[in-house]
Write a structure and sequence with these properties.
- There is one protein chain.
- This protein has helices spanning about 5-15, 30-40, 60-65, 85-105, 150-170, and strands at about 20-25, 45, 70-75, 110-115, 135-140.
- By secondary structure, it is an alpha/beta fold.
- The chain has a five-stranded parallel sheet with strand order 2-1-3-4-5, sandwiched between helices.
- The longest helix is centred in the last third of the chain and has 20 residues, at about 150-170.
- About 25% of the residues are buried.
């Protein structure tokens, strides 16, 4: 448990990425991914999504994967486009990653950034990637679904201020 999805993304990336390795994100993506990845000494590789649908362009994705690829960040529903990756897109992506793991002889992780998972409408299904791929980290935050963004940080700050106040009162 962490203080939100950004914290969990940072922890996962710091745990698995080494300097010189690469992490793929599909455009458009949350700009902070670049900061999180570069802090590890790794490189962000942006892969252009399909122009009209914003689904993963499998040809461009396959061309971007190489022996330095260690992870792929998935954000579905996506921030900022709102697109939800279809089950078919997820299955193709996972099949390709399994093929590339065998080809390069090492794990390629999927990191899902899911703070918007519950914010979908019109009976659109958001596939759980853990049901399709074995090397998956799920980074989730309840704050968007409960309309409480920042609440976890506020609670932590209140708790720290109260502890400081109690310590000063005891002196």
């Amino acid at each position: 448990m962490t203080c939100g999805a950004a914290s969990s993304l940072t922890i996962v990336l710091n745990a698995i990425m080494l300097p010189g390795e690469e992490c793929i994100a599909f455009t458009p993506y949350f700009p902070e991914y670049g900061v999180f990845i570069e802090r590890t000494g790794a490189k962000l590789v942006a892969v252009q999504s399909e122009d009209k649908t914003f689904q993963i362009d499998m040809e461009k994705f396959e061309a971007a994967i190489n022996e330095k690829t260690k992870a792929v960040i998935i954000n579905s529903p996506n921030n900022p486009s709102g697109v939800v990756y279809t089950k078919e897109t997820i299955e193709k992506m996972c099949d390709l990653l399994r093929k590339k793991e065998k080809e390069y002889g090492h794990s390629i992780f999927v990191i899902t950034d899911e703070p918007y998972r519950e914010l979908v409408y019109d009976d659109i299904e958001v596939p759980y990637i853990i049901n399709y791929y074995h090397n998956t980290f799920v980074c989730y935050s309840y704050s968007k679904a409960l309309s409480l963004p920042g609440e976890h940080r506020i609670w932590m700050m209140k708790k720290m201020l109260m502890q400081q106040f109690v310590v000063q009162e005891e002196l």
